[in-house]
Specification:
The protein has a domain of 35 residues. Helix content is 13%, strand content 30%.
């Protein structure tokens, strides 16, 4: 079975969703881009989840 890659028109800073997961497009240091898990909660939400401060 041959797999065909989908071509995406994305730029650093864009968010994409793949299989119910969110990823941020980031520069890869070699002139291309890479996917990294997106931060989906604010700093305030993260602090609240850890007990406040």
């Amino acid at each position: 079975m041959e797999v065909q890659a989908k071509k995406l028109d994305v730029s650093p800073g864009d968010l994409v969703e793949i299989g119910d997961r969110h990823y941020e497009i980031v520069p890869d240091g070699g002139g291309g881009v890479s996917l990294e898990p997106a931060v989906t909660r604010s700093v305030a939400e993260l602090r609240a989840a850890r007990g406040g401060t």
